[in-house]
Amino acid sequence: MAEFASDKIRNVTILGHGSSGKTSLVEALLFNGGGSSRVGRVEDGSTVADWDPEEQRRGISINLSVVPVQFEDTKLNLVDTPGYLDFVGEVISGLGVSEAGLVLLDSVAGVEVGTELAWEQLDGVNKPRLIFVNKMDRENANFETAVASATETFDGTILPFQLPIGSGEEFEGIVNLVDMKAYMGSEGAVAEIPSEMDDAVEEARQNLVDAAAETDDELIMKYLEGEELTEEEVRQGLRQGVQGGQIIPVFCGSAIQNIGLFSLVRALRSYVPSPADTIVEVPNGEEDVEAISADPDGAVTAYVFKTIVDRYVGRMSYVRVFSGALAVDSSATIQRSGDRVKIQNLFHVSGKELDAVTSLQAGDIGVITKMDGLKTSDTLSDQQLTLPSPEYPKPLYSVAVMPATKADSAKMGQGLQALAEENPTLQVEYVTATKQNILQGMGDTHIDVAIRSLDSKFGVKVDTAVPRVPYQETVTRPASAHYRHKKQTGGAGQFADVELRVEPMDRGDGFAYDSEVFGGAIPSVFIPSIEKGIRQILDQGVIAGFPIVDVKAVVFDGKHHPVDSKDIAFQTAGREVFKIAMQEARPVLLEPIYTMRVTVPDEFMGDVMGDLNNRRGRVLGMENRNNRAIINAEIPLAEILRYGTDLRSMTQGRGIYTIEFGRYEPVPSHLADQVISQSKEEEGEQE
Question: What is this structure's pTM?
């Protein structure tokens, strides 16, 4: 594909609920633009965008995919994103490098939960959006109902720019309300507007002209004075309104039948801002802000928005050039590390196909390969500027992972880290409290895909289990204990006598150690030895094997022997006296409490509230927004380890939630006994 100037590039992210036809639309647009010789089908696993074997196996998009489409003198970089909620990180990454979003609606289903999530992401980055009502050829397709569902759900002036001619099997084409022409069939042949649509077209056209006039002071004055706006003035007003976010245009068609798509691609060219029209503000110091424009002659500034580790190609870094031009054999600095690197391999990308190029112009998207020091969210720049990275949601679903064999054990850590680099919403953590490696993601499907990728990409097989809850142990009252360690083996013996007190501390204070020994009862050289012995069991606990926190240990008396007292003896005495004191101080288990925000359609609110109460949740408040209830609650982690699956069942897949760690609280005594008993059973099995 040829090079395009910044003002001839359009970067558009395709969003919507799963199965709304995003990938099929991209495939049809690519075919229309001459980028492929046939239209691939999702069902056959033959599309350009869904190139990953796992995507083809499941029949859904998992990764974002960049597919460039050439239309006349314009290059459209279409960023196809998954509609499944588990892969929202790909949507966020795609929006970070696009100037606008194209939101697909199913003509029968209208707004769905995935549509709402996509809209929220667009709101978060404050970017213009367009709506495409797809599948107008479906039985029971209803353009008016789909548009009404968007108008009721979302804010803003949602306005049809087209009307469908027929629906279902009788869907034939579209009426363009801007140029007042009808376009029929897959070729978009110009035709007369059907006379039976005259009233609907006239009303819709008037709404369009009204909206166009309201975007510009001069146009509204002319309009109010009774003058007719020219077609160019209408286009100008609409373009200004769409790019400014005041107007959200609605188009329609069928990706499968390839009807309405020539009109759609013309609209994308007309209404989506080009990189040349966009200014990106970048923090420069604590208060200063640097404005970055798509200046082809400016200093190079590029952003890495996705990483793929391929066993054949190596590391593939997807980049968007915001300023200047990236060129082969040129150098730039990775701002995170300060490393100066040389660009050696540069490509245009279409799905999985790479096309070698000598440069990437400002505003364009491409791939750098085999640059190991480059990571997702890195900025490559000749200036000391770091482009802001998106905020990704916190993981909701976790599994404990164990290597299936000893051979897998050596490779597991490296493979997990590579997966986390590829996907910012995957996290890997070793939890000391439970002695488990935890893989965290957005849902069960997300994790399942990651586990399969671990095997197919890195040759690592793992077993999984539900993670253990990372409980903690603490005390609720002061208590003292005495322990004497005496050992005689024929030669030099061991002797240490320690009296120690434990005291509870405030939540989050950890562990503290002090000495009140006076008069040399225990020489000062052995005071650290006692602490060393105590610290040996802080991670092991004394009642259920969990870490000990928020406890202060104070040595207040003891005895020593001038010959037999030594470091190891006081370590042993310190460890044992601390255990005894802990048992006397009424120890309790602490459990992690999370704050939760659950968003569900109003009709499911009662079921969800009841379920939260059954899970020992505390509802903190509620609010209503766009026919959806938002419930804020606090709930123990032990009760929500698999909450996502249960919430989907309760809400027909329409509920979503977020969680964030809050604090630790004591476990109710009847539940604590169960946890302690289970922990001892597991410890016995391991022995």
Answer: 0.88
